Amino acid sequence: MLALNFSGLQYETGTDEAGRGCLAGPVTAAAVILPEDFTHELLNDSKQLSEKIREYLRPIIEEKALCYHVTNIEPKIIDEINILNASIKAMQECIVKLNPTPNYIIVDGNRFKPVNNIPHSCIIKGDSKYLSIAAASILAKTYRDEYMNRIHEEFPMYNWKKNKGYPTKEHREAIRKYGSTKYHRMSFRLLPEQLELEFEKGIIL
């Protein structure tokens, strides 16, 4: 059973991101403040749930939450500031848009940077321990999947509708055949042989 609250404060927000390890598309974050009486037996880390259950839970979270916000950080920004900073930026941008303003932040993972002097705690595997982080993980995942389904229509040869931009064999083969797009993260190693080329040149990214 996931816990509702970490800090004991009423307006605690949980935040999480999706798409950090992808070769294409945005990194997407969500932040959620849940009411004190919230509970749902299916709510868990989005990675532990089927797509069908995630889609079922999304409108429930949106309806029951005191507030929530979702932010995409595009590949151009990811390339400029790196994926860790982009992930943190996405979570911070969600948090500052919440109303009521949270008085505590719980973050999935082990890295975060303070925002507006709100105290925070990083919690390893927090999305499988706290309801608000689990809720944020579901919103981040479903909103990002929706985005990838949309851009799939623009570039169907990469099959983002299925692989969502992750480095699957199929996705890498499509990059090899068709090259990269405006949605690809150029600071990422899009093809395995890039590492060999970079090593030969004495460049390690």
Automatic annotation (TrEMBL):
Coiled coil: none annotated. It is found in: Cytoplasm. Residues 10-200 form the RNase H type-2 domain. GO terms for molecular function: manganese ion binding; RNA binding; RNA-DNA hybrid ribonuclease activity. It comes from the Bacteria. It is an enzyme of class 3 (hydrolase). Its main location: cytoplasm. Its EC number is 3.1.26.4. InterPro entries: RNase_HII, RNase_HII/HIII, RNase_HII/HIII_dom, RNaseH-like_sf, RNaseH_sf. A divalent metal cation binds at D16, E17, D108. One of its GO terms (biological process) is DNA replication, removal of RNA primer. PROSITE patterns: RNASE_H_2. CDD domains: RNase_HII_bacteria_HII_like. Manganese or magnesium. Binds 1 divalent metal ion per monomer in the absence of substrate. May bind a second metal ion after substrate binding. Pfam families: RNase_HII (PF01351). The keyword Nuclease applies. Keywords: Cytoplasm, Endonuclease, Hydrolase, Manganese, Metal-binding, Nuclease. One of its GO terms (cellular component) is cytoplasm. It catalyses: Endonucleolytic cleavage to 5'-phosphomonoester. Its cofactor is Mg(2+); Mn(2+). NCBIfam families: PRK00015.1-3. HAMAP family: RNase_HII_B. Belongs to the RNase HII family. Endonuclease that specifically degrades the RNA of RNA-DNA hybrids. This is Ribonuclease HII.
